[in-house]
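Look at a sample.

——
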Amino acid sequence: MNFEEHLAYQTIVSSIDSLTEIMNVFERTLLEMGQWNVEARLKDARRLASDNGEQHPLRHYYNAMLLERFFKCFLTSDVHEYINLARKEKLARSMLHYLNVTKDDIRNIRKLLLDFCELPLGKLNVSPTVTLGIRVDLISRFISDHLPYVGIAKNYVNMRDVATVLSHTVGNESSPGLVGGKAAGMLLANRILKPTLSEAHNEFVELIVEPDSYFINSSVSVDFMTSNHFEECYSLKYLDRDVRDRELLRLHPLFMRGKLPEYIIEKFKSILTETRSCPLILRSSSYLEDGVGYSFTGKYDSIFISNRGSIKERLAEMTAAMKNVLFSLFGSAAMEYRKDKQLLDYNERMSILVQKVVGQQYGKYYFPACAIVGFSRNSYCWNSKIKPEDGMLRMVVGLGTRAVDRVGDDYPRMVSLSQPLLRPETSVAQKIKYSQRYIDVLNLETKKIETHHFVDLINELRDAGHHFPIRDMISVLQHGELKPPMFIPDRLEYDNCAITFDGLLSKPEFPKLMRHVLQTVEKGYNMPVDMEFVYHDSKLYPVQCRHLAMRDMLLDQVELPDVDEKDILFSADKGFPNAIIEDIEYIVYVDVESYNHLPTTQAKHEVGRVVSRLNQKLKGKNFILMGPGRWGSSNLDLGVNVNYSDINNSMMLIEMAWKKGDAAPEVSYGTHFFQDLVEADILPLPLYPDEDGIIFNKEFFDTEENSLLRFEQADEKMLGVVRVFHLPATRLGSKRKLHVYLDDTKPKGIAFLR
């Protein structure tokens, strides 16, 4: 035996706790190679034992012969690989025991997993028949127990990935807890794109970066609630909405004064030390969030913190954010959504995903170059050149708040990845008007999110000497055309520039990267996906991933019926898929002129409340909603202020854009509000009543009997704003119902009485 073999032998002998497993691996390997005969070697071992007159040395002689043969067949380095494989197998089988027999022994499970991951990765892996079961158990125990997720994740998230999660987890080490749905989706997407144990796509691997993340698992929220006696919050879900909202107002200040257990404080201090001076975002990650069939988009809170100041100040900022995110678990938006999805009795728990905010500091401001929502499927192809399977993007400069919400009179850039530079707007005036005007940034001095007009912000930054990638993001009016600037002007002017992303989209590398990412993750999920990203310094950071809900009513082909024009209430020619919606009995209609003339924001807010009450009273009946502007916007002057629970029983939401100069494009695609409509199988339809070629029977909506008082005790002023038409009882309806046929190949859609 040479020196290297001697060292290997000493390693084996010193591994008394794993000796049996090591010999079993050696024996199994030689048997598979045809280099070992068990019966012959046992016979030799008995003979040697007899010759030496020892009583029980059979295993000793057998092992000696096994070692000798193994060293002849393998290099010493390979011997060490097999030794480590034996150790991994022993730890893996111990884990299986603890995961399936002593399920509550969280400490031992963690220790075994960490011991396993301390062994070198090596070239030899434990059999998938063993590890697959362990993966499933570990994912279900520490990440998410949502079965559709586990079924996908077991193929991509391995034992070492779970160990990495645990090393970044804040939780009670003696109690079970999950990192929740949002964290789970982010982890899975990144493992599909950049596997731990195999090579990713080399062309893109350096461009995709996993964001630095920490996980506050659900045991933290349970400990906080229990130690402060907030258990009554768990029953808020069974109260009527008005009563619940009053209770939430009472409980919130008590909740914010609640004390965190000491172990949480120490863990928070550790995170703040590791992330010093980098802003953080605390994102909700409840058990149900981002699950297949229900995404909970926008139902819970996500909060940015500056992470600036003394450790005491930063700790106060982080604990306040954590409590607010946790308290959002009990909010009415989430409760009404759960009620609608028949999830009210589910024992929902809140975990929190903590991530470094990707971006750059510009003086007192901090923000990324670009935030993106991406769909792997584009259901609304407004041009024949657009391919649904190539997907679409919704892009904004700055923090991602404007990418996911309908915020004010502002328009993100909508991008079809089939034709990245193709736009529905044709004129320069339209492109400038229907573009992003405002950028959300984190002010590091005030520690608050602020909104600035992009012209003012960029001029301010450039005056202070800060570099911003203006050529990729902004186009400037030059000789009557809007183009990325070859030479950056000294100052931007309000009317001669727009955020277009044309500089970035004209580079083939970026659309190619986005197509690759969306299609790769869709293939891993085996279903369409909805993802959120940050793009900064030429790197793409996937920060969220969920199943993309697709509308059940969509059809491959629709043939428009031959209808007399006098029976058509309205027609449409853009912004819809193939769909048929029949037997509509009621229309809830908000009149644009009456709405615009309401004297106060409170009066406009009341319109949304009337719609909400009608939504409940018409439940079970076939009804649609029609009204001006951008429903769901936070700006009451732009449209009716409603959320998911205010409209979830309707069949369609028709947003009417009356002409003000050029017609406005539909801009809800990709927002949380849009996803709510899709999940509830509510079809959104943009309607441009006064465009050429469009039919809109204004006389019907102005003169037919208003049935509002059958459902709502409304004052005279509200009667002029909100109108309810029971179609079979109207003069034009005459016992008929409304039917909507939409054909996106023409494109043409009609709503007619029959």
Notes: DSSP finds 27 helices and 26 strands in the chain.
